[in-house]
């Protein structure tokens, strides 16, 4: 099954998982339809400009407005697999444009799936496998892979690959003495 019917089938599947979360259901619908339209616009040449103005742009505007209401940042066209279960909706969720999420994953609120395109010599975005559990406030950042059936604990900061079936917990930050630049005079302290 391809095309719009497949996108709508995915949206119906998403809605059935989130029966009690109306805003999440609508965001998933605009996400799936927007993804289909994005592919259509990209492969349509001159006709793509018409598709863009008539269909894709309005879907993006509605989707971005809903994301503002939900307090999340999920790009239209995000690569999200089937049956992503958002236990508390999209509350505080951020996903980088080039990140990918597999099938049957479970995410709690305030999860960040971020790229390191602006800060790394080896830039990229995470690829999250199938059946991955991600706890509250987890941060998965950079060109890494989280394997199938892995678990990421609450508050974990993941910046290295997580093998399939493994569990990642704990913050990764460490203090590096002498690396901070002094504040300019008149600047408020951080």
How is this structure best described in words?
The chain has 190 residues and is an alpha/beta fold. The protein is 32% helix and 15% strand. The protein has helices spanning 4-17, 22-42, 46-70, and strands at residues 79-80, 85-86, 94-95, 100-101, 106-107, 112-114, 127-128, 133-134, 139-141, 145-146, 151-152, 157-158, 167-168. The strands form 3 sheets. It has a 5-stranded parallel sheet, with no helix packed on it. The radius of gyration is 19 Å and the shape is globular. The mean pLDDT is 82.
The N- and C-terminal alpha carbons lie at a distance of 53 Å
CATH class of the largest domain: Mainly Beta
Average pLDDT confidence is: 82
Strand order in the sheet with the most strands:
2-5-8-11-13
Task: Identify the CATH homologous superfamily of the largest domain.
Answer: Hexapeptide repeat proteins
CATH architecture descriptor of the largest domain: 3 Solenoid
Please identify the structural class as seen in this structure: alpha/beta
Counting copies of identical and different chains, the oligomeric state is single chain
Binned strand content: 5-15%
- Please provide the count of β strands: 13
Number of helices: 3
Uncertain parts: none
Coarse morphology = globular
**Helical percentage:** 25-40%
Overview features:
190 residues; single chain; alpha/beta; 4-stranded parallel β-sheet; UDP N-Acetylglucosamine Acyltransferase, domain 1; 15% strand; 5-stranded parallel β-sheet; 32% helix; globular; 2 domains; 3 helices
């Amino acid at each position: 099954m391809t095309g719009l019917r497949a996108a709508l089938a995915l949206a119906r599947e998403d809605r059935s998982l989130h029966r009690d979360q109306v805003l999440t259901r609508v965001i998933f619908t605009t996400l799936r339809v927007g993804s289909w339209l994005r592919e259509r616009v990209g492969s349509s040449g001159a006709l793509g400009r018409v598709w863009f103005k008539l269909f894709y742009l309005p879907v993006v505007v509605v989707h971005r407005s809903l994301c503002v209401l939900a307090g999340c940042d999920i790009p239209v066209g995000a690569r999200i697999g089937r049956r992503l279960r958002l236990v508390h909706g999209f509350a505080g969720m951020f996903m980088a444009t080039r990140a990918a999420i597999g099938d049957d994953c479970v995410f709690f609120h305030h999860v960040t799936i971020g790229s390191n395109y602006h800060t790394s010599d080896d830039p990229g975005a995470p690829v999250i496998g199938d059946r991955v559990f991600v706890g509250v406030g987890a941060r998965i950042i950079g060109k890494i892979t989280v394997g199938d059936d892995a678990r990421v604990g609450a508050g974990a900061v993941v910046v290295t690959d997580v093998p399939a079936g493994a569990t990642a917990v704990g913050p990764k930050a460490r203090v590096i003495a002498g690396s901070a630049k002094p504040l300019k005079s008149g600047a408020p302290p951080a």
